[in-house]
TrEMBL record:
Species in which this protein is naturally found: Nocardia vinacea
Pfam families, per the entry: Amidohydro_2
Upper lineage: Bacteria, Bacillati, Actinomycetota, Actinomycetes, Mycobacteriales
Protein name: Amidohydrolase
Domain Amidohydrolase-related: 24-293
Taxonomy, superkingdom: Bacteria
Keywords: Lyase
């Protein structure tokens, strides 16, 4: 594992070797201070949705975290937020819109929850410039096919705005996690631009199947192939060939700052797959640059 003190050197060398202008990280968390504090407290308690000891590697204030991320050479990133109850998403969207306005390298992020007025604040977020939405099926504890979300999914399909969705059953299964609800959603909205968080951990093969069937389905690498995840949910080596064939739809994600290891390990874990420099260039920069129209 790359040590924290060596991350900047390692990542600078990585970008130089691959001739990359930077790294695009599609899975980072910036939240209102009080919300982030509650998230960290939940991780500290090893709550049931975490299921194991999970120390936070980058427990710093917002400006320090931004400086750290930029120091790693991250050129664009997200501010993923997610409601766990009604009457929360619209307020989070106001915060993320303000954060994006004062943080030009952040992709304007928004979220939603199954509630009667969800379509109105999703429409408002799109009009305000939201470039990606985050949905957390496990934390929100809702079925992605909830009828209250029908107008939202239709709106997002028409807009072509990507939705990064935590829907796999890791690190702990939920009532509505797994590939089946997503397969049903895509049958109804086949043009959705979905980014499956964590490669769908641990249902890797099933979510790769969906990516092969639906051209709008992408997957992010968040925490996959790291020592931490390989210990409990190893990625099947038999699927490495599909990582090559889907190389244009895999995006780098880290889960910064809520990771229990150094940031550089997220990249070194990809390098040790030995899928080649071209694959790494696509995953760490080019695919996201194309999806989010980053010059």
């Amino acid at each position: 594992m790359i040590g924290d003190s060596d991350d900047n050197t390692y990542l600078t060398d990585f970008r130089t070797r691959l001739d990359l202008p930077g790294i695009i990280d599609v899975h980072t968390h910036f939240m209102p201070e009080q919300v982030m504090a509650k998230v960290w407290a939940y991780f500290d308690s090893a709550g049931p949705l975490v299921g194991r000891e999970w120390p936070i590697a980058y427990r710093d204030d917002e400006q320090v975290r931004l400086k750290t991320l930029r120091g790693f050479g991250v050129r664009a990133f997200t501010s993923l937020v997610y409601p766990h109850k009604p009457d929360m998403a619209a307020w989070l969207n106001e915060w993320t819109a303000d954060f994006a306005e004062r943080t030009p390298d952040c992709l304007h992020t928004a979220t939603f929850y199954p509630e009667h007025y969800a379509d109105s604040y999703v429409e408002a977020a799109i009009e305000r410039g939201a470039r990606v939405f985050k949905v957390h099926v496990q934390v929100g504890d809702f079925h992605p096919g909830d009828p209250l979300l029908n107008p939202v999914w239709g709106m997002l399909e028409d807009a072509g705005t990507p939705v990064l969705i935590h829907c796999g059953s890791g690190p702990a299964p939920g009532e509505y996690t797994g590939p089946e609800p997503i397969a049903g959603l895509l049958q109804r909205y086949p043009r959705l631009q979905l980014i499956i968080a964590h490669m769908g951990t641990p249902e890797y093969s099933e979510f790769l199947d969906l990516a092969e069937e639906y051209p709008g389905v992408h997957l992010d690498t968040t925490m996959v192939w790291t020592d931490f995840t390989e210990a409990t949910a190893p990625f099947p080596t038999a699927e490495h060939s599909r990582l090559r064939s889907l190389s244009d739809r895999i995006l780098f994600g880290s889960d910064f700052p809520n990771i229990p290891y150094s940031y550089g390990h997220s990249i070194s874990a990809l390098e040790r797959l030995e899928l080649g420099d071209s694959w790494l260039r696509q995953v760490c920069y080019r695919n996201a640059a194309r999806l989010f129209e980053i010059a």
